[in-house]
User: Which sequence fits this backbone?
């Protein structure tokens, strides 16, 4: 199978292509299944900057009924494109912080998804994945302090029981490797392993995210080293996604990492209504 379980249509502010455009591209490249995962960020401090989603070309607040429109668009697309053999899954990528955990639960209640991705992009309201913001948070902190804060939030996300899968689990390396050097990876290993143990206990899966190549890396999120440590725990849930924000990156490097993971003895899964549907 060829799937992409992390795709941002133009509902996300930083994406530009429509659900239809992605579906047409998916058929062109032979995707069997695509899961759309529009961003959802409820950080109150970042609300004026990022608290919006695009609906029919207009910016609307996350406080609106935008999820009704989003899911209706996915339902429409499913009716059109499944006739051509493309399975479409309803997903969302939620920026987690402990501060807004209860609000996340309330806002998602009553909506039906196939997959809910959890992600940590912000620490103390600073976006560590953005070039213009990461120095503000990294300055004055050791690499160990960064890792401890980051994985504390990931563990909180896992304990929240909101999420099916954790996305790009070593996102801190996007700018952290250049800032701190190779010591960053060593400082995070034991914290990542502890987090993996918790994920296995809570039946929360791991994502292989192939967007790293767009930032000059020659590996995915997570690294092969962390992926091997995940494999040692006999995991049951592993997904893969390109984190595409436009159609040119759809499923980019996905076949490569499917092969790498399978050589390690790992299996991938697909989701339906937030339960594992099949393995491949």
Assistant:
């Amino acid at each position: 199978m060829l799937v992409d379980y992390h795709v941002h249509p133009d509902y996300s502010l930083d994406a530009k292509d429509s659900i239809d455009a992605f579906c047409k591209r998916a058929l062109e490249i032979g995707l069997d299944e695509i899961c759309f995962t529009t961003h959802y960020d409820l950080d109150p401090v970042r609300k004026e900057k990022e608290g919006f989603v695009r609906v029919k070309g207009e910016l609307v607040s996350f406080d609106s009924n935008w999820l009704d429109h989003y899911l209706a668009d996915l339902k429409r697309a499913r009716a059109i494109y499944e006739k051509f053999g493309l399975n479409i899954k309803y997903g969302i990528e939620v920026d987690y912080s402990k501060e807004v955990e209860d609000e996340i639960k309330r806002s998602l209640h009553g909506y039906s998804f196939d997959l809910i991705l959890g992600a940590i992009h912000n620490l103390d309201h600073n976006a560590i994945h953005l070039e213009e913001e990461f120095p503000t948070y990294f300055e004055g902190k050791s690499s160990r302090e960064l890792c401890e804060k980051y994985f504390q939030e990931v563990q909180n996300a896992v304990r929240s029981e909101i999420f099916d899968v954790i996305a790009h689990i070593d996102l801190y390396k996007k700018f952290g490797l250049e800032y701190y050097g190779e010591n960053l990876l060593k400082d995070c290993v034991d914290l990542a392993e502890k987090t993996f143990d918790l994920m296995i206990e809570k039946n929360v899966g791991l994502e292989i995210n192939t967007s790293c190549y767009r930032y000059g890396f020659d590996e995915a999120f997570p690294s092969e080293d962390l992926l091997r440590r995940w494999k040692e725990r006999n995991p049951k849930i592993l997904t893969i996604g390109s984190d595409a924000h436009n159609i040119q990156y759809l499923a980019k490097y996905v076949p490569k990492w499917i092969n790498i993971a399978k050589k390690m003895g790992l299996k991938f899964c697909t989701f339906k209504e937030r339960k594992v549907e099949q393995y491949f």
User: Anything to note?
Assistant: The longest strand covers residues 33-41. The radius of gyration is 18 Å.
